[in-house]
Amino acid sequence: MSAQPVHPHVPGEPRVPRTVDGIATALQGGRRMEFYRELGRAPLDQAEAILRRWWCEAMLDTDPEADRIREAALEGTLPVATLADVLARRERQGLPVE
Q1: Which of 64, 49, 42 is nearest to 96 (CA)?
Q2: How far is CA 95 from CA 10, 26, 87, 91, 98, in A?
Q3: What is the rounded (10 degree) CA torsion for 82, 50, 4, 89?
Q4: pLDDT tens-digit map of 45-91
Q5: What is the pLDDT of residue 8?
Q6: Do 66 and 60 meet the contact criterion of CB atoms below 8 Å apart?
Q7: What share of the chain is helix, strand, coil (3-state, %, to 5)?
Q8: What does the pLDDT read at residue 2?
Q9: Which of 14, 27, 32, 61 could cross-link with 3 by S-S, CB 3.0 to 4.6 Å?
């Protein structure tokens, strides 16, 4: 079973906003509380890294293809790419790479 967003995704807008509230809204139940606990205990110099990691988790939780992707990963049929390829693609798309 995969988590579904409370509000449908609007094309052209991020599925999960890169904000504390956006991330928390996308996470379900215990994961949301785990996110708040981790962020609340983090020193300021670690907060951004925690937000990035949890944003990725929230994106996975709200991906409509999540079940298919998990199944392909478990079966070993998920396409793979090198980190260099991923970073180059993100740069071409104007996305953050740090």
Answers
A1: 49
A2: 19, 21, 9, 6, 9
A3: -30
A4: 999 999 999 999 999 889 999 889 889 999 999 988 999 999 999 99
A5: 58
A6: yes
A7: 60, 0, 40
A8: 46
A9: 61
